[in-house]
Input
Amino acid sequence: MILVAALLAGCTVLRPAETVRLRVLQLNLCNSGMALGCYTGRAVDQAAEVIRAERPEVVTLNEICSGDVDTLERAMRQVPDDVVVAAFQPARNGRTGEPYRCVDGQRYGIGVLVRLAAPDRGHAVHHGFYPAQDPADPEQRAWLCVEAGTDLLACTTHLAYTSATLALAQCTHLLGTAVPQLHADSGHRPTVVSGDLNLRQGGSPDVRSCVPAGYGHRHDGGVQQLMATAELKIDATRSVDMDRTTDHAAFLVTLTTVRQPPPAA
Output
């Protein structure tokens, strides 16, 4: 009996797989101050309200200033033990090589927020600039991904608006080169790519031309798109009103995946 008890004490107990919900909120806040047709100065405060109300696990951010990430990270961390990773990537000024700037001098670009399951088992941030850029547009576009342990790779981008053909080339690079390279380097994991791609389903070219085989895809009826690897089942999508603080409604996508918890000792 003592031997049996000792053997059982040393056993590893496999826990049953669990279904995990993942809510991804895409926001284009038009907050640089340069685009006067959509800039209001109120979009970040409205975004914080939406984040607190919807409690997403992932937020992808386009057309933001660097300080906006801190504000929205605080909105996402609603209880003391919330673990939130915040990442920001500025666009590059093609004329100077320096970060592109908002009107107030802050760096301008894209961001990702990810709420991790506590404790944080490790994360990494990856980014890059597209090889194809519009030489007439000083804003050079970038991509940004947060790797949350083995559970998730969450990416965003804001593609070129001057040419749909160029935006498609950038999208193809992200989904066909950059993300597969991250999978090769760190191991495959469930992946979401969400952002303002300046491409439409049914457009010319069609955004579906850069969606890899096996990926799920949804859109907001316009240029905001979400793509996800096959492990993530897309359950629902809806637009969330931004109260005229920016020219894009928020785009909320709910996904589920089956995850095997770590074994119990």
Observations:
- The longest strand covers residues 18-28.
- The chain has four helices and 14 strands.
- Residues 104 and 163 are 28 Å apart (CA to CA).
